[in-house]
């Protein structure tokens, strides 16, 4: 890789995506600086113990970002959104944070910005926390900074949450039983981001839809049954749920019209990133612990958001 002695700032490093990026960059030999609200918190201390530099900062505090971005090669940008339970942000907050990060990176002379968006970006979906990504993407492209935009597919981790109902032998999700949808392991998002930072000459200016597998609902049930050692059935979310939840109704419509199922070129991606995990390999590896927890869960099943 190039620039091995350079530093990359990772936003959201105490979360799933940012944490995976920080880990992958460290594995590749980068110096990683994580911007965290509370360096004394458990997750921040875990990052520090793994060799990540943690600095106090906040997406709503431009001065803290300017200090964090000084003398860095790259910035990985991901923002909380209103679709995440407990995130405590509005859609306008997300756009303000995402555009500010890009602006400050440009002004600080950051060489490479990697922004994590969504598969639906580029079209108006009517789901506010998805449409925010298109606005941030457009802003990033208008700046004088080398940038790469990645659009991850739906996380494999969402299929084995403790609330999804696997302990009762059933999985319900957004697509029909015979309808394929693309998924990606969060770990692989980090490894792709690390590869992007390692070869800016190959990735600057690119917008990349990324995924590791495409599976129907029935295929998901088959893989889960094999991994769990007990029958797991599949059905689409109950028709009563989307009717009661406007966002879920819109998400199902986006699956039906193809915009949320993902359209990544899996063959090309697997050639470019041979480490990409398919769902069965993920279940046998990084996802094994999550699956075990989900199978033992006693939580009431809820619809994915």
TrEMBL record:
<dbReference type="InterPro" id="IPR051164">
    <property type="entry name" value="NmrA-like_oxidored"/>
</dbReference>
<comment type="similarity">
    <text>Belongs to the NmrA-type oxidoreductase family.</text>
</comment>
<keyword id="KW-0521">NADP</keyword>
<dbReference type="InterPro" id="IPR036291">
    <property type="entry name" value="NAD(P)-bd_dom_sf"/>
</dbReference>
<feature type="domain" description="NmrA-like">
    <location>
        <begin position="5"/>
        <end position="244"/>
    </location>
</feature>
<dbReference type="InterPro" id="IPR008030">
    <property type="entry name" value="NmrA-like"/>
</dbReference>
<protein>
    <submittedName>
        <fullName>NmrA/HSCARG family protein</fullName>
    </submittedName>
</protein>
<dbReference type="Pfam" id="PF05368">
    <property type="entry name" value="NmrA"/>
</dbReference>
